[in-house]
Design goal:
With 225 residues, this protein is α/β, with parallel strands linked by helices. Helix content is 35%, strand content 25%. The chain is built from nine helices and twelve strands. Strands 5-12-11-6-8-10 form a six-stranded mixed beta sheet. Strand 3 and strand 4 form a beta hairpin. The radius of gyration is 18 Å and the shape is globular.
């Protein structure tokens, strides 16, 4: 199911004029045709994601990079304390933290491309995410969206509590989301510190599915899996 969803996202993205007129590059910088690029990008076994940018020559480039999934062990208590101190967000000790991260200069959408999210754009995103956030909270997952520090966030309406923040001092950009990916990245951080990052367009519900033991244990090489 997830592979079909990823394929749909990639095919939809390639229908946009910006993607169609971008120069496609492989991991080693070799030029690829649209078909070659799609085939590699949709093959999760290759563990690739994409980033799009404007080159010094004025052309748009979209390149494949290694690391669709990345694992690490983080200091959960320190991250939990940081959210309380800086953002006034109380994360229960036994909750999993689910972070959505949006990068500066991301050419994914019109909203992200200008490094400014207006009130109406954020209100729409809040309305879209509120239901998911409530559902995940009932399952022991705290869902928060972070924007790279230089991105401008206008004031917006959120009656159910604030959970959209700028990444102050780019702490998470420097320590967890170290390379930008097209349409953002997601991370799951367990209370034991085990952390799984998925780079590239996705959504919180699909990311949360990775908490299922049969999926999670594949990434952390648990015995019996």
């Amino acid at each position: 199911m997830r592979s079909l969803i990823v394929l749909f996202i990639v095919c939809f993205y390639f229908q946009s004029g910006l993607a169609q007129h971008s120069i496609k590059l492989d991991v080693d910088g070799t030029k690829l045709t649209n078909a070659e690029f799609r085939k590699k990008w949709t093959n999760e076994q290759l563990n690739l994601y994409a980033w799009q940018y404007k080159g010094e020559d004025g052309n748009n480039y979209i390149e494949l990079r290694k690391g669709l999934f990345e694992t690490s062990v983080q200091d959960f208590d320190s991250i939990r304390s940081l959210f309380k101190k800086i953002y006034n967000v109380k994360i229960p000790k036994k909750h999993v933290i689910l972070l959505e991260y949006r990068f500066k200069d991301d050419m994914c959408t019109t909203e992200s491309r200008d490094n400014k999210w207006t009130k109406s754009e954020l209100d729409y995103k809040v309305a879209f995410a509120n239901g998911t956030r409530s559902e995940l909270k009932s399952e022991g997952v705290t869902y928060i969206t972070l924007f790279e520090n230089d991105i401008i966030l206008e004031s917006h309406s959120n009656k159910k509590g604030e959970y959209f923040f700028n990444d102050i001092d780019n702490f998470f950009r420097n320590n967890l989301f170290k390379t930008p990916s097209l349409c953002g990245s997601y991370a799951l951080i367990k209370p034991n510190g085990e952390t799984l990052v998925r780079n590239g367009e996705y959504n919180a519900e699909f990311m949360a599915e990775h908490l299922k033991s049969e999926i999670w244990n594949r990434f952390f090489n648990k015995e019996g899996n």
